[in-house]
Amino acid sequence: MELLADSVPIVGNLLISPGFWGAxxxxxxxxxxxxxxxxxxxxxxxxxxxxxxxxxxxxxxxxIFVGAMIALGQSVDIIPAVLLGYPGPSSTVDFLEGHQxxxxxxxxxxxxxxxxxxxxxxxxxxxxxIIALPxxxxxxxxxxxAEIAAMxxxxxxxxxxxxxxxxxRGLAAAILGVLMSTIGTAALTAIDRFNFNSAYLIDxxxxxxxxxxxxxxxxxxxxxxxxxxxASTGEVSNRExxxxxxxxxxxxxxxxxxxxxxxxxxxxxxxxxxxxxxxxYAFGILFAKDKSQFGKGSxxxxxxxxxxxxxxxxxxxxxxxxFGIPGGVGWAMMLVALIxxxxxxxxxxxxxxxxITMGLVLAIGIGNVLSMVVAIAIxxxxxxxxxxxxxxxxxxxxxxxxxxxxxxxxHLGDIMVVLAVGALGLSMKWHGWPRxxxxxxxxxxxxxxxNVFTSLSLGGFTYVFSRPYAITILVLAVLFASYLWxxxxxxxxxxxxxxxxxxxxxxxxxxxxxxxxxxxxAATDSSVAVAQPSTIWSTFARYWRWEFAxxxxxxxxxxxxxxxxxxxxxxxxxxxxxxxxxxxxxxxxLGIVATxxxxxxxxxxxxxxxxxxxxxxxxxxxxxxxxIAWIGVFMLLAGTIGFKYAAVLYPLVFINLNLxxxxxxxxxxxxxxxxxxxxxxxxxxxxxxxxxxxxxxxRWLGLA
Length: 704
Fold this sequence. Notes:
This protein is mostly helical. It contains 28 helices and two strands.
């Protein structure tokens, strides 16, 4: 009570301070545009601005600016994930659920609902932060390696159980993600693994290019090949924004629950935003009455995660401010700022530096509210991008995506990772493999490996199973996974029955809800009517033959490269995870082979991913190859005239040769070209001072 009493006059002074509002508005102006550039997030911007803040800005105002950037950086990921189809590492649920709604013409409604829920979640998180700081220490200090490993395992269990309708493929995707996360130097032994003697792969596959490859590039290729807008129907107006806001407010019972859950998860150091996203999603599903819509375009699914994600920032502030342990990447930058200003975390944050603490609380809460206000003001205009032919959008998004990917390590390998992982992502999308488990496995693989082996080294299994918090989390994982297995299995059966009646083939059908599937025509959009296979050979010939090639490549890489190399490592900590994961992956692949060939249904089940818009037939393959060839054109331009010049020229060429525009309409292509020029020459060249890759094609030809 004394803390709250001391806080009241401080809050009043901050709310009438021009410096406080100036810091918030400046953060909003910077975080908004930069958030639309994949790979260039708020953390990078904070790192660049930190020296100037420390030298010339009052500590309280400077730290408020950093806190606002952290809060706003999370919220701006929503727009590109939902409307444009490229997610960040912590906005994959927005992509999987929200982008499907945007395809149906509800993009503006999703934006309205999401931002109002995010604003409320941020305010709840800010309130929880100030209440929890004096009391949270007994809980936080009990979370160590065993508890973090258990939370990571819980995250994997939740996402695999959610994809119950395609369980084997979801499990295979998760294990494949874990396997690919082992590329690079083993954290505990410094042994190089699976890097093919490449210096670029010493640190493993970078996260941003991997995310863009597995989700964004396949989506851009598919939508561009269809030559249609993201949404061919639906209304885009301020009215839709307000309807969305009302839909969000109807969840007034759900928002506090999800927000407080997000605060709790955020307060656990080492969990990470991706785990918070999926755990909050699964946690919301546990309480949902109708579970049949999740994975097929559910507004509830988006709101579950966004209310928790907004509140999570307040949770991550707790260990940062109370113990000097950063709760996330953004709050690691906050800790750097605190130390640079000479502000000590801990008890002083509640006494002598209470003004800074309250400033951060207000920055988190008001920052999310400001995001909502901006979304209301411009949301309907941005949502109009969903009604523009995607060829126009792709002309801008392809070079911007590659520019963003290049910021991961400033190495040409970043682009190669996008292309390689993009080929895998497109294959998974084509064959109905859910890609979310892959990403979560990729993110959590190092977390599980580091914390499990560290726990075992501290005292073996006795140490792990003597910690009540770790045991509790593992028990909850089993209970939640069992419950989700049952309810999602029931939803899967309901969808399969409706899809069978409609003549839809599981992996060939775009994700849609049960009612739409039951009333859909036999062959529309991305769904292709296929006669039910009656023999093993007809199943193989009609449905599975190209998936067999993908499985052969993945299985061959695992059996001939991963396992032999892992067995040869001389330290147990380096070999165990790839051996276990590789062996499990081969077993699951065999299970996919057996169940697919022996299933009379031919795999008719919900995929829990966004299906192929273009289709799965020969004509669709030709359309996809045409867009892939255009990506080759961009790489050729980048390697001859230079990366930043290619980013500006490419939209002009691509749009004018792929859209039947004549006369003055061709001038519209100057808009994406101008945006690409702004990103390349202003943001990256002069603001971030990027060192661009050389003209590699000329170098390979010996001409440069």
